[in-house]
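ARCHIVE CARD
CATEGORY: sequence design from structure
SOURCE FIELD: tokenized fold
FIELD CONTENT:
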């Protein structure tokens, strides 16, 4: 019996997002964002929890660095999703507004706590088989998952993302 857990879905088609709560790039509530809103674009999704130390020490600074480096590239879009799987009383919708402001990230932020059907587990975590937070998902222009992992070399990611036209 093989009990190895395989995280990520590299090489597979991206799942449409099923996240109901979002704020826009300016911290205002907005309609649910879908991957299909960005057809033909390369998509970078950052998964985090507000109480996650690694998200603040590594993940969010990496996201800041990438968004600044790709600021003028309209072929790449960024979004962040709080994929709550614990600490539901701490990892709240209000925290995504504060984090967006604290890090100066003018990108949409979602809040995914799942629902009864998903047993209150983040849909993004389940569909993309993330192994926790922080976690990055890269989806190409044809909606293929090309990167899905905890470990991200930011310099290499930026170099790669700058090649997207």
């Amino acid at each position: 019996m093989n009990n190895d857990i395989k995280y990520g879905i590299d090489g597979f088609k991206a799942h449409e997002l099923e996240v109901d709560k979002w704020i826009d790039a300016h911290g205002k509530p907005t309609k649910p964002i879908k991957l299909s809103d960005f057809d033909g674009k390369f998509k970078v999704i950052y998964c985090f929890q507000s109480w996650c130390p690694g998200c603040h020490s590594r993940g969010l600074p990496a996201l800041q660095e990438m968004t600044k480096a790709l600021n003028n590239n309209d072929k790449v879009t960024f979004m962040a999703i709080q994929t709550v799987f614990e600490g539901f009383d701490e990892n709240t919708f209000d925290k995504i507004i504060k984090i967006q402001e604290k890090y100066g990230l003018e990108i949409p932020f979602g809040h995914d706590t799942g629902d009864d059907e998903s047993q209150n587990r983040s849909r993004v975590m389940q569909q993309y088989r993330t192994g926790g937070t922080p976690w990055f998902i890269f989806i190409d222009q044809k909606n293929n998952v090309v990167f899905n992992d905890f470990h991200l070399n930011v310099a290499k990611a930026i170099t790669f993302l700058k090649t997207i036209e």
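CARD ANNOTATION: The domain at 21-110+119-127+149-161 is CATH 3.40.30.10 (Glutaredoxin). The mean pLDDT is 92.
SHELF: design records, drawer C
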